[in-house]
Design goal:
Shape: globular
CATH architecture of the largest domain: Alpha-Beta Barrel
Structural class: alpha/beta
Radius of gyration: 26 Å
Bound molecules: zinc ion
Number of helices: 9
Order of helices and strands: HHEEEHEHEHEHEHEHEH
Number of strands: 9
Length: 268
């Protein structure tokens, strides 16, 4: 009977529609579950950390100092310049094994291949901070304003492309800069950072034993020290012993993300 057939058709149609509705609902629910259980990106983790910093950068001394007495003043900051040049990942792994953080300051001329970019992306995703150390490592005071900008600003773009985050610390090569550098660096929302001491580029300390010995016993080691190291084989070999030694002396290794960024700090 036509009526019966129509009724059957309607019932079948409704059932099919119901099935497809259910499928659609399930699909959306699964997607929502995946989205909510996904771990947050490193960029999001860093953003969260930067919203509750406990230390500040002193622009006069480049030391790291507590914002209040809720945290220890016996800290040091570990920084690695001229990266990535062959040993950055080895250094990062040795630090990660000891559950400490650090800052890797990159040069643009070391970030021209996909492989080099991947190393920095991996180091960033391990929780380390990436800083700016210029594109070509020049003496900035020998460059005019436009040339200095070209050394600094495009590298921030490159790092942001790789990590999703613009650098907030800048260290001038050879510690040489002028007022133009200051202006550009601060316009870019970065701290201009020097260092407290460093030895790994000096001929006398280019072995893991000698570098460890001087780093742990130099009279310049103190509260808030900003320790300069480089992407070198002897530094990579020494870094584990250096961190262990610093901890034995009672120093904490400060997480760069616990230091107030320039734009929020009003330090200069
Ligand atoms: Zn350098």
């Amino acid at each position: 009977m036509p009526y019966k057939q129509l009724l059957t058709f309607i019932i079948i149609s409704l059932t099919l529609m119901g099935c497809s509705f259910n499928k659609e609902t399930n699909k959306i629910t699964n997607e929502q579950i995946i989205e909510t259980t996904q771990s947050p990106s490193q960029t999001a983790i860093n953003k969260e950390k930067l919203s509750q910093t406990t230390y500040r950068f002193d622009p006069q001394t480049s030391l790291i100092v507590p914002k209040d007495n809720s945290v220890s003043e016996k800290v040091v900051l570990l920084t690695f310049d001229d990266t990535p040049d062959g040993h950055a990942m080895e250094i990062a792994k040795a630090l990660k094994e000891r559950n400490v953080s650090a800052m890797f300051l990159v040069n643009g001329h070391f970030l021209e291949t996909e492989e080099q970019k991947q190393i920095i992306k991996d180091i960033y995703n391990m929780g380390f901070m990436i800083g700016n150390h210029t594109y070509h490592h020049p003496y900035l005071n020998q460059l005019n304003k436009e040339q200095q900008r070209e050394e600094i600003v495009p590298l921030n773009d490159i790092v942001e492309d790789i990590t999703g985050e613009r650098p907030t610390f800048f260290r001038p090569p050879f510690g040489v800069y002028d007022e133009i550098t200051n202006e550009i660096v601060h316009q870019e929302g970065m701290h201009l950072m020097m260092w407290s001491f460093g030895y790994d580029w000096q001929a006398d300390y280019q072995s893991p034993e000698k570098l460890t010995e001087i780093t742990l016993n130099t009279p310049y080691l103190g509260n808030g020290s900003n320790i300069l190291m480089h992407d070198r084989s002897w530094t990579a070999e020494a870094i584990g012993a250096i961190v262990d030694g610093l901890k034995e002396k009672g120093f904490q290794i400060v997480d760069p993300y616990s230091i107030e960024p320039y734009q929020n700090g009003g330090s200069q």
